[in-house]
Amino acid sequence: MSPRFGLPEFATPRLSAPEFYTRLARAYDALARRGPFVATLRRALADALDPEPGATVVEFGCGTGANRPYIEERIGGGTYVGVDFAPGVLRVARERDRELGGTGDSRGAYVRGDATRPPLCADGVDACCGAFVVGMLPDPARTVREWGDLVGPGGRIALLDLARTTRPGWRALNPAFDLFVRAGSPPGTARSLARSPATVQDERVAAAHRALRETCADVEYRTLLGGFARVSAGTVASPSAVE
Ligand SMILES: C[S@@+](CC[C@H](N)C(=O)[O-])C[C@H]1O[C@@H](n2cnc3c(N)ncnc32)[C@H](O)[C@@H]1O
């Protein structure tokens, strides 16, 4: 038992999320770029975000930068900034950027930082997004509201996430999805949570997408892959419009 809190020793994951993603960075990169359906999902995110050409877009929890080409396609000569707290994924992302000699005519950067504490000055960020990340955040609704503050009224936010499906014909696959979520979490996560990792992920994803709906005016929501993938996007409303 833990001497301080009386909790079992396994109450915290054996690897922190940054350590886990750093260790798995190359394997994750292969899955993130060439896994089944990823191109469809990443395109859906960029289409939903719908940034203006020339926009500055921040992606929180950018991982190895798999969404970057899809976002850069939309912003032309704009600026993509990827933020992640795992040094290993940023290393892979930067290596690829160098191999490509920079990406097109877009100016971009990868920055180490915490998605829950945006490290950027608010001026000049037109849009922000997160893919498969809000399910890892302790208070995703609060974070999404902070992303809304970062882009300000008129700015765009988009989320892409996986959660258990509610569609009757597909629900039989939820147990396989539970295993997928468990396998994709740092070792020890399941034991550190009071509920299954997939249940926690479902709740966090729902809370984040709800917060986006409450923060934005013209919300677009769609599901893909039998209801397992959810995309929400909208334009941040001025405070009086959401009261
Ligand atoms: C499942 S991966 C998704 C990566 C990428 N968005 C993609 O679509 O492939 C989740 C990423 O979020 C990052 N992450 C999780 N929580 C974070 C936080 N609070 N701040 C910054 N990055 C975070 C992890 O390090 C990891 O790279």
Task: Summarize it.
This protein is an alpha/beta fold.
Biggest sheet statistics = 7 strands, mixed
Count of discrete alpha- or pi-helical segments spanning 4 or more residues:
10
Detail the poorly predicted runs.
1-10
Distance between the termini: 47 Å
Bound molecules: S-adenosylmethionine
Q: Class in CATH?
A: Alpha Beta
CATH architecture: 3-Layer(aba) Sandwich
Helix-strand pattern: HHHEHEHEEHEHHHEEH
- Alpha-beta classification: alpha/beta
| The CATH fourth-level homologous superfamily | Vaccinia Virus protein VP39
Q: Quaternary status of these chains?
A: single chain
Number of strands: 7
CA radius of gyration: 18 Å
Kindly report the spatial arrangement of strands forming the biggest sheet.
3-2-1-4-5-7-6
The share of residues in extended strands comes to 15-25%
Q: What portion of residues is helical?
A: 40-55%
CATH topology: Rossmann fold
Global outline: globular
